[in-house]
Structures are given as C-alpha cells and as structure tokens.
Amino acid sequence: MQTATPAPRKAPRPRADALRNRERIVTAAREMFVEHGPEVPLDEIARRAGVGNATVYRNFPDRDALVREVVCSVLDRTGAAAERALSETGDAFEALERFVHISADERISALCPMVSSTFDKNHPDLEAARERVERILETVMNRAKVAGQLRPDVGVGDLMVAVAQLSRPPAGTACLSADPFVHRHLQLFLDGLRAPARSTLPGTAVTMEDLRQS
Q1: Does pLDDT of 115 surpass 60?
Q2: What is the mean pLDDT of the chain?
Q3: Measuring CA to CA, which residue among 87, 155, 158, 77 is closest to residue 111?
Q4: Strand partners of residue 194
Q5: In the 8-state DSSP scheme, what is residue 40?
Q6: 113: closest CA among 126, 124, 99?
Q7: What whole-number distance in Å separates Cα of residue 90 and Cα of residue 3?
Q8: How far is CA 43 from CA 19, 60, 72, 73, 149, in A?
Q9: Strand, helix or coil at 194?
Q10: Least confident of 33-37, 67-71, 96-100, 189-193
Q11: What stretches of the chain adopt beta strand conformation (E)?
C-alpha cells in the first residue's frame, strides 16, 4: 500500500506583531545610528524600540545585518518617494526635488557611509537597493531632461555627491544641528540644476559608476 506524499508546507507568514517589532527596531536603530554612529550598543536600540534584546537578535543576528537593513530601508523609502511624486504629478523635476529633500530627512548621507570596509558593502540586499534607487533616479532625470526642466550636463553621480555634501555630516557628529540650513541649501542646489543652464560645467556628467571607481 502506497502512502500519499505530504504536500510541502508553506513557510508561515510573519505575525503582524512580529512585523511591527521589526519595524520599531529598524526605526530606533536609524535614529540612534544617526545620533551616535554605528557602534551604539544594541541593548540601547532595543530599549528605544521598546522590545527585548532577544527580539533584536531574533530579527538581526549581528550588527552588520541591522546596519544593512537600516540603509536598505532608507534607500527604498527615498526611491519610492520619487516614484510616487512622478506618478502623482507627472512632473519629473518635482519628483527630483522630492527625492533630494526626503533623502536629507532620512539622513541618507549620514547612514550610507556606515556601509564601509567594516561591513559587506557588496551584500546582495544592498546591491539591489542601490540599483533600484539608481534606476529610479535615471528615469526621473532623463524625463526631466527631455521635458527641458533639467540641464543636460548632470548625471546621477553629480546629484548624489551634492546631496551627501549639502545634507549631513557623518553620523554621531552632531549632524542634527545642521537641520535649520539643510533644505535651504539643497533648494539652492536644485535651482542650479534647472534648464536653461547659466554656465558650462567642466568635465562630463558624473555617473554612479564613476563614483564607485574613484
């Protein structure tokens, strides 16, 4: 007599409270990494998130995994903001402005440098998150150029360098004190991106690949 082969079991979906705990941990880690740098004790992150240490380690087995998740979540949110703006208004330059200002609010320039030589900066999750943002920005900037809104001699690399330099100093170095001036200076930069350009930039448009090779 043959016995029926049991159907493969599907992996259980995470419970809603488990997902909420994970999100609280990521939010608390993002805040504390910005305030104190990536070496902030994990038990302090657990305390701010309102969860136990075991919950942190159940979700993130080590510090690298938590830093990586924080950076990926920030990249995803900034890219999604640009996509939403583009779909809501159809105005490519407005989508570009939304990305720049939300990147500053998300502390993207304070968090992304954490993925340094100490961490696996080539982890597949990070690579995928970076590629998504770059793809979105390429689309937005190309549309803005075609519409005559964006000067033609700038690239994604130019944008990211300026955002990093104008928004935040490194994490843990009183970067929050720059808040009153950040959006003012970013808007001055954005106005300088508008077409028609009033000057000719030296060199050629900078790509993300140029930045990676520099």
Answers
A1: yes
A2: 84
A3: 77
A4: 150
A5: S
A6: 126
A7: 59
A8: 19, 13, 22, 21, 48
A9: strand
A10: 33-37
A11: none
Q: 68-198, superfamily in CATH?
A: Tetracycline Repressor, domain 2 (1.10.357.10)
Distance CA 82, CA 55 (A): 33
The rounded Cα 197 to chain-centroid distance in angstroms is 28
Say if CB 137 and CB 82 are below 8 A apart: yes
Question: Tell me, what amino acid is at 76?
Answer: D
Give the Cβ contact number of residue 206 at 10 Å. 19
pTM of the entire structure? 0.80
Q: What single letter denotes the amino acid at residue 60? A: F
* 144: CB partners within 8 A, 6+ apart: 92, 93, 95, 96, 150
Phi, psi of 187 (to 5 degrees): -70, -35
d(CA 142, CA 55): 44
Give domain limits for the chain. 68-198
